[in-house]
Design a protein that fits this description.
The chain is α/β, with parallel strands linked by helices. The chain folds into two domains: 167 residues, 3-Layer(aba) Sandwich (Rossmann fold); 65 residues. Helix content is 38%, strand content 24%. It is built from nine helices and nine strands. Strands 5-6-7-3-8-9 form a six-stranded mixed beta sheet, with helices on both faces. It has a three-stranded antiparallel beta sheet with strand order 2-1-4, covered by helices on one side. Helix 8 packs across helix 9. It is globular. The two termini are 29 Å apart. Bound molecules: adenosine-5'-triphosphate (ATP). Keywords: ATP-binding, Cell membrane, Membrane, Nodulation, Nucleotide-binding, Transport. InterPro entries: AAA+_ATPase, ABC_transporter-like_ATP-bd, ABC_transporter_ATP-binding, P-loop_NTPase. This is ATP-binding cassette domain-containing protein. It holds the Pfam family ABC_tran.
């Protein structure tokens, strides 16, 4: 469970987050929707403790990422837009390295690597060095790393960008399995179809503020608009400014 209240973050003169509040429940996939520059990545980085917030409270299963970073890190997986792959290592070696850093080792790690590899349909790249990997292959490796330590909370920054149809389906299956397992998943995305088909709840942010939260059908009902993309545009305004 992730609870956020009145989180604010400024970079010099740029107010990236001007007061974001929401809660994301376990066993649900929550979409983070917002125009470019709305503050989604800043919010995710703040939740995971990579950025210090200026104001507000954050609780990841009750723990504050600034006061209790180790508890939060154990319990969270974060897929960023910077994958940080090591090109000289094969996918398996890379996952072994990060598994060991997370305190998993031996047979348990070997089994876990097989599990995430199957979950993400990435057997074909397991023994290959990551140098030269395509965007989709790189995302898969980074996502596998994110899932390795079985975090109960997952923060994913545009996880489906660059994935082909088969890989997108593998990602969806993986996210559904995590939801069934009771994980709390927050996913920043611009793909409305993904939100409509996959997400239980949607947080809409614009210009660093929470504009709305509800299921896709709630948001459509609230705006009186049938299609989620149009409902989203109506909520944030054509220019990305909250209506
Ligand atoms: N390190 C930084 N220094 C200065 N400004 C920043 C920094 N990081 C983010 N910003 C600014 O904060 C605002 C929010 O950016 P952020 O990357 O969080 O948006 P986003 O919603 O993830 O956008 P996108 O959909 O384009 O990825 C933007 O105006 C951005 O330029």
């Amino acid at each position: 469970m992730i609870e956020v209240h009145d989180v604010r973050k400024q970079f010099g003169d740029v107010k990236a987050l001007g007061g974001v509040s929401f809660s994301a429940r376990d066993g649900q996939i929550t979409a983070l929707l917002g125009p470019n520059g709305a503050g989604k990545t800043t919010l995710l980085r703040t939740l995971v403790g990579l950025l210090k917030r200026d104001q507000g409270t954050v609780a990841i299963d009750g723990a504050d990422p600034e006061r209790d970073p180790l508890a939060v890190r154990r319990n969270i997986g974060f897929l960023t837009d910077q994958f940080g792959l090591y090109e000289r290592l094969s996918t398996r070696e890379y996952l072994q390295y990060f598994g060991e850093l997370n305190g998993i080792g031996g047979a348990a790690l070997k089994t876990r690597i097989e599990e995430v590899s199957e979950l993400l349909a990435m057997d074909d790249i397991l023994e290959r060095r990551t140098k030269g990997f395509s965007q989709g292959q790189r995302i898969k490796v980074a996502l596998a790393r994110t899932l390795l330590h079985r975090p109960r909370n997952l923060l994913l920054d545009e996880p489906s960008r660059g994935l082909d149809v088969m890989s997108t389906r593998a990602l969806r299956r993986a996210l559904i399995a995590l939801r069934e397992d009771g994980c709390c998943v927050i996913m920043a995305t611009h793909v409305m179809q993904e939100v409509t088909h996959l997400c239980d709840d949607v947080i809409v942010i614009a210009q660093g503020h929470t504009v709305a939260q509800g299921s896709p059908s709630d948001l459509c009902r609230r705006t009186g608009i049938e299609n989620l993309e149009d409902a989203f545009v109506s909520l944030v305004g054509e220019e990305g400014i909250a209506a």
